[in-house]
Amino acid sequence: MPIDRHQLALIIPAMLLCSLGCPGHANATGARDMGIREACEALVEYGKAGEMTFYQKAGKDIIDPDRIKECADITVPNVMQITKIALPIAGVDFYYYKNESDSPPPDSANDKAKYVDVRLAVLLYRLSKMLNDQYGVTRIGHNGFGTPDFSKLRDYDAHLSGRALDLARLEGRIPNDKPDGSTSYRISLARHWSKADNKEQALVGEKVVEGRRVYRLSDSGSSVIDRIAASIFKDIYILATKECSDSSDQPKQNRIIQAPRLPGDLNERGKGRGYILHPDYGDDDHAKDHWNHFHLQIATLKPEKLPPS
User: Fold this and answer.
1) Alpha carbon distances (Å) from 101 to 10, 47, 98, 289, 296
2) 36-48 and 118-135 helices cross at what angle (nearest 10)?
3) DSSP letters for 185-234
4) What is the pTM of this model?
5) Per-domain residue ranges of the chain
6) Least buried of 133, 234, 245, 271, by fewest C-beta within 10 Å?
7) Residue 179, C-beta contacts closer than 8 angstroms, at least 6 positions apart
8) pLDDT averaged per 10 residues in sequence order, the chain, 309 residues
């Protein structure tokens, strides 16, 4: 659905606000640097605020947040590293799809619950909260995170261990002056970032400056939806530099970012730096493999022998 100039004027303040420092928890520990107990304590607060819901160990009943005591009731196994979260989170639903040609499924196919690492649960909340508050996002399409089946948790796989998210599509509503007060939109990394039909076309639109692959999108893009997409993807990346494994996959070992940076601006063309993967990543193979999604992870891709307590 086309978006007119007046609608853009209404959403621009939110776009600028988010770019200047979302999601409003600048002094909080990034999810990547949290110990398990600190992450649990944060989840308790999100639950009490009514923006996240957790299941009991048996996974049968959703518990009252007031009954949560230091995560004892919401985590499995007893190391308290894994929790079963109910979806949506902070007003955002999630759905899985496999092929880029797949149409968005009906709402009835949205994810209902996932087993995830408690640190990823913190990231999911902060990501969802920012996107919903600033861009009206109500639904995220992904290529995998966590599992609805506890028996399928696998520590050797960052996604099946609940420590990584592949974010690919977003749906939402922005305000307008029409009777219903808003306009719906859908954006995807494939269509609005790579603008490609497959991974082999992913680098056709790349932008290289002084030997570095830089963020190819612009807030002054050719259409309103392209400008919105450029801003949303940029702000997801900025949040990820504070919350996710970036220059290191070890807690408290990541570079400190003094000012927001764009995707790709530290990536020498042909080389990759860091763990936040996307279509403008420096290394060609990784850029092609992530032509249609962000890879956002907490901690290491390898089995984590001793997560921080």
Assistant:
1) 32, 36, 9, 16, 22
2) 40
3) EEEEHIIIII--SSGGGTTTT-EEETTEEE----TT-SSHHHHHHHHHHH
4) 0.84
5) 5-297
6) 271
7) none
8) 41 38 59 88 86 62 40 39 88 94 92 91 97 96 90 81 95 81 90 95 92 88 86 95 92 78 73 86 92 94 75
